[in-house]
Design goal:
Blueprint: H1 2-31, H2 35-42, H3 45-78, H4 84-96, H5 99-110, H6 126-136, H7 139-152, H8 155-162, H9 167-196, H10 199-204, H11 215-225, H12 229-258
Helix pairs in contact: 1-12, 3-6, 3-7, 3-9, 3-11, 5-6, 7-9, 8-9, 9-12, 11-12
Subcellular location: Membrane
InterPro entries: MetI-like, MetI-like_sf, Sulph_transpt2
Transmembrane segments: 12-31, 51-77, 89-110, 122-142, 230-253
Length: 259
């Protein structure tokens, strides 16, 4: 009993030092000058543009990754085809490759001196930022949904097919309700990763205030370039708030569906 309590205390202490204390310090530094100063810092044109751009990227990336994730998870869990191992490796690639390398690869492919010779305005614009974010968030929906598909098996889907249901009806009425928890967690992870992406965006975004500067790039610019620590803390708090709002909304939506 004492060993269990000691392990729990050590785990909570480690979590507190690693996560809670830094977060508390950021919140303290953010609001030590009052709400008015915080509001003024996060309503500058650069901050509003960064918030809008970050939310735009999330709004594009999440649906793309949900569709790709569901299709890929179904293929991996239900299919048996040549190249399945390669597809598994491709899905896990973002876990192994540095996001900075992803940004460099996009420049080599889409840049002015790249393979496509700058045929499309991708680099240093919204499409490039979306491509980079899609890649780094690629595995989350797949890796959350695939184990659930393997666990539920195929019996109910086969029964529905036997009763005359089409593939779409089977997916919509049988498969999707069974995997919705996995989809939920995949979406939450994708949103959090999209909002917090920094490495790849430092390469492909350009970081021009008011044009191609996301919230993470705004935090970096204020802290490193402008030496505006208060502004950096304020932008970081907005990032935390957006992630928290996303989690709460998804939880409420899930509870409403269950009701």
């Amino acid at each position: 009993m004492s060993t269990r309590i000691a392990l729990r205390t050590a785990a909570l202490g480690y979590l507190g030092v690693l996560v809670l204390v830094p977060l508390a310090m950021i919140l303290y530094r953010t609001f030590e000058d009052g709400l008015v100063a915080f509001f003024q810092s996060v309503t500058t044109p650069a901050a509003i543009s960064a918030i809008s751009l970050s939310l735009t990227i999330v709004a594009i990336v999440v649906p793309l990754n949900v569709v790709f994730g569901l299709v890929t998870a179904l293929a991996l869990a239900r299919g048996n085809f040549p190249g399945k191992g390669i597809l598994q490796a491709v899905v896990d690639l973002p876990f192994a490759v540095s996001p900075v390398i992803v940004g460099v690869a996009l420049i080599l492919f889409w840049g002015n001196d790249g393979w496509l010779g700058g045929a499309l305005p991708v680099i240093f614009s919204l499409p490039g930022m979306v491509l980079a974010t899609v890649f780094v968030t690629l595995p989350f929906v797949v890796r959350e949904v695939e184990p659930v598909l393997r666990e539920i098996g195929t019996e109910q889907e086969e029964a529905a097919s036997t009763l005359g249901a089409s593939r779409w009806q089977t997916f919509w009425r049988i498969t999707l309700p069974a995997i919705k928890v996995g989809v939920f967690y995949g979406v939450v992870l994708t949103v959090a990763r999209s909002l917090g992406e920094f490495g790849a965006l430092t390469v492909v975004a350009g970081g021009v205030a008011g044009e191609s500067q996301t919230l993470t790039l705004l935090v970096h610019a204020r802290y490193i370039d402008d030496h505006n620590t208060f502004g950096a803390y304020a932008a970081s708090t907005v990032l935390m708030g957006l992630a928290l709002v996303t989690l709460v909304l998804m939880a409420l939506l899930e509870r409403r569906r269950e009701a």
